[in-house]
Design brief:
By secondary structure, this protein is mainly α. The chain has one domain. The chain has helices at residues 2-8, 16-36, 40-49, 54-76, 87-104, 113-130, 146-165, 170-182, 186-210, 216-238, 242-272. The longest helix has 31 residues, at 242-272.
Length: 273
């Protein structure tokens, strides 16, 4: 029975224990990251820990993110919290940016990414300190100008290039863009990012598949787990008010920024020695 399980279920690159560990990590991460984002900052290192080749880990994780984002979006469907007026154009710019980002995986040195993401997350924290009501005030009190809308779409496009490349911290920063430039509440921002990320992750996955980098069996299995986790996390998110979502989001941003900065510093120190 165990041999049959290995043949029909387990990816060939993993033992039963390793696969079970990945399933647990991916499930728990998907439940929490519906609010916090930064899924790939946890899931990709976990895959690398079990010996999966880096580019394959990024590509396979992107396939799992498609299902995770679909699960999160489904939990918000019909609740009136997704910004449907901006979603179509956000999907278009994210689609184009993600394709560019996926192609960039072959040429951009990954060493620069931790520093960039850490700096951007710290900037999000500083902005929140000076604008404490961002994401909490009702939408009618947070109307934005045409210039802010254009800046928001531009920022979303630029960020989606990074999202297609790696995605670690992409949704966290995209949530911040929606809050800052579009005046969304946290509930609106969290739900809208899930819809946008379905297309963003899918377009990047298509490019990765074309390049032959995706482990389909592993990606689909982990994706199903993440779909369930995100669906549960989405329903939990709807029960929280915007103030609590802000607290959870900011705590995650600070923790992740410090984690990335420390890891980057430690890596540079060890390499320097």
């Amino acid at each position: 029975m165990e041999e049959l399980f290995k043949i029909t279920i387990l990816p060939s690159c993993l033992t039963r224990l390793e696969f079970s560990a990945l399933v647990s990590i991916f499930f728990l991460t998907s439940v929490v990251s519906v609010v916090t984002g930064s899924t790939s900052l946890i899931t990709v290192p976990a895959m690398l820990l079990f010996g999966i080749e880096p580019k394959s880990a990024v590509a396979t994780n992107m396939l799992a993110l498609v299902l995770m984002s679909a699960g999160g979006t489904l939990s918000f469907r019909g609740k009136g919290v997704i910004d449907r007026s901006r979603a179509p154009f956000l999907i278009i710019v994210s689609f184009l940016g993600s394709i560019l980002g996926a192609l960039a995986l072959l040429v951009v040195p990954s060493q620069v990414l931790p520093t960039v993401v850490s700096v951007l997350m710290i900037a999000v924290v500083l902005f929140s300190v000076f604008k404490p009501n961002t994401g909490i005030a009702p939408p009618e009190k947070c109307r934005t100008s045409r210039g802010m809308d254009i800046a928001g779409y531009t920022a979303a496009f630029i960020l989606s290039i990074y999202g297609g490349f790696f995605s670690g911290g992409y949704i966290t920063l995209l949530t911040a863009i929606f809050l800052v430039f579009f005046g969304m509440t946290f509930t609106q921002a969290v739900s809208t990012t899930k819809l946008v990320n379905v297309v963003s992750s899918l377009s990047a996955t298509v490019i990765f598949a074309w390049l032959g980098l995706v482990d389909y069996r592993l990606g689909i299995l982990l994706g199903i787990v993440m779909f369930i986790g995100a669906y549960i996390g989405g329903h939990f998110t709807l029960k929280l008010n915007n103030l609590w979502l802000r607290r959870i989001f900011m705590a995650a941003v600070i923790a992740l920024a410090l984690k990335i900065a420390f890891h980057d510093f430690l890596l540079k120190t060890l390499v320097g020695k």
